[in-house]
Amino acid sequence: MGNQYRKTLFTTIGIDKETNVLVEKVCKRYSLKKGEVVKLAFQYLEKAHINPADAPESVKSELAKINKRQDDIIRFIRHYEEQQLNPMIRTSHSIATRFDDIAKTLENLILSQLEASREKQYSILQKISDQFGKHADAINNQSRQINALYQLQQKESLKLLKMVSLYTDLANCGVMDGKRKETLKTEITNLINSQ
User: Fold this and answer.
1) Which InterPro entries does UniProt cross-reference here (predicted)?
2) Distant-in-sequence, close-in-space partners of 128: CB < 8 Å, separation ≥ 6
3) Residue 21 structural domain
């Protein structure tokens, strides 16, 4: 029953002794059966689109074709390099150089502007500081003057109160208190004349 499902038909082909020796050699080398070698060889010929009737070319001619193709490719690469890549590299290099020069110029310009701005700010801050110092001195002077005036006013107020008190005592003195009146008048005169 197992043989009923196997419907592969085998056929035989006739080959000469030289070809048979080559087939056996390939079979030994790759551990394949003769049928497998033939099958794989025909699959290779089909895939590679090789016509077995065409005479095989020599290895030298194939290598010459490959070398010619490589030379053509190398010539194309060199030509492309000379015509396209080298000018682009030179242009990009000149652009990069100009960009670096411009960047350095801008950097120097910005640094000089910053330095000038810093110097202006320093001089302005110095002027403001000087003005604040002058204002602080003026305020301190005015504070001292106000303090001196306040103390003078207090002294004068005390003097005035003392005078009022003495005049009140003088007014309260009767006709008989002459000595007391003289003493009060002397005190009032001394108080007026005192600084």
Assistant:
1) BfmA-like_N
2) none
3) 1-56
